[in-house]
Amino acid sequence: MTAALLKPQLLDLHPAAADMERLVREGLRRSPRQLPAWFLYDAEGSRLFEAICCQPEYTLTATETALLETEAPAMAAAMGPGVLVEFGAGSARKVSPLLRALGRPAYVALDISADHLRSACRDLQGRHPGVPVLGICCDYTGLEQLPDHPLLEQRNRLGFFPGSSLGNFNRAEAVGLLRQFARLLGPGGQLLIGIDQPKDVRRLEAAYDDRAGLSAAFALNLLQRLNRDLGGDFDPAAFRYRARWQPESQRIEMALVSQRDHWVNVAGERWPFAEGEPLITEHSAKYDPAAFEALAAQAGWLARARWSDPAGDLSVHLLGQADSEAKEPQADEQR
């Protein structure tokens, strides 16, 4: 490995403003209105999300981090060596136990916020100076393939998707995303994925509407981004944040609810908002292990192993691609 590869590198494949305008127009024409969840993650949104993860109501991050710390050696042994590709890397803090357990891996981080990604890769390189690090700023849901780069050549690709982020997508989208991961990881690729499980409704709603108001600030920052990047004139004071459990869909719905009849200009058009009308910012679906494994099977993945916290709040699943699993014995490991 050359010295040059031991410095964090960044490839910027971020969508152009014109693409964002198109997606905003499409989202505002939907009923109910909904924008892509990745719009939330500009630099300020990424900072707010990291703060949300530290709130006492939001236990997912601490629980998953502890599970990874404990079980990383078993996870690494099940996966084998390769390049670790993290989708939606954020601060890239959860990956450290895996990097230590994998021995001498390479690490590729995909995220939508270039500034946040640059900082995360720099910090991770400081914690793991011997690990080659590459950041790719992109919307990974729309990538045709991972870019050509020495770190991605002739290596077993190990996908990492923690944080239960799959829950941001509806069922059809989730299946499509899992198929997308299979394409990006290539034949023989594996996927280690964190999945939040259903639990008490009061706990779930509190996790997404914390007392400190950070979840609300995170959602309202979306309007500030649309004003800044797309020439919008949203008035954040005209909206109220709401997070509620939808039992029929087994998910939390987060929305900004219009407090009055008014008009908004954004993305080159003028849009009416009625009092009480929601603008959905994101969903967070919850899956029990059997339901998730059935979903993964629809996308061509087979369950190889699963690890869970003692309370059964979340699981980390290891998936293998169905077309390569016939050549390898499956592990049936649960903790």
Shape: globular
Proportion in helices? 25-40%
Which segments are poorly predicted (pLDDT under 50) over 5 or more consecutive residues? 325-335
Q: Count the DSSP helices.
A: 10
The portion of residues forming beta strands comes to 25-35%
User: What is the CATH C-level name of one domain?
Assistant: Alpha Beta
Sheet of most strands? 9 strands, mixed
Strand line-up in the sheet with most strands? 1-5-4-3-6-7-14-13-15
Mean pLDDT: 91
The CATH superfamily of one domain bears the name Vaccinia Virus protein VP39
Structural class from helices and strands? alpha/beta
Count of DSSP strands: 15
Task: Describe the protein.
Helix content is 35%, strand content 26%. It has 335 residues and is α/β, with parallel strands linked by helices. The protein contains 10 helices and 15 strands. It has a 9-stranded mixed sheet with strand order 1-5-4-3-6-7-14-13-15, sandwiched between helices. Strands 2-12-9-8 form a 4-stranded mixed sheet. It has a two-stranded antiparallel sheet with strand order 10-11. It has a domain at 3-13 and 55-199 and 287-334: Rossmann fold (3-Layer(aba) Sandwich), CATH 3.40.50. Helix 2 (43-52) packs antiparallel against helix 8 (214-230). The longest helix is centred in the N-terminal third of the chain and has 20 residues, at 60-79. The radius of gyration is 20 Å and the shape is globular. Strand 10 and strand 11 (269-273) form a beta hairpin.
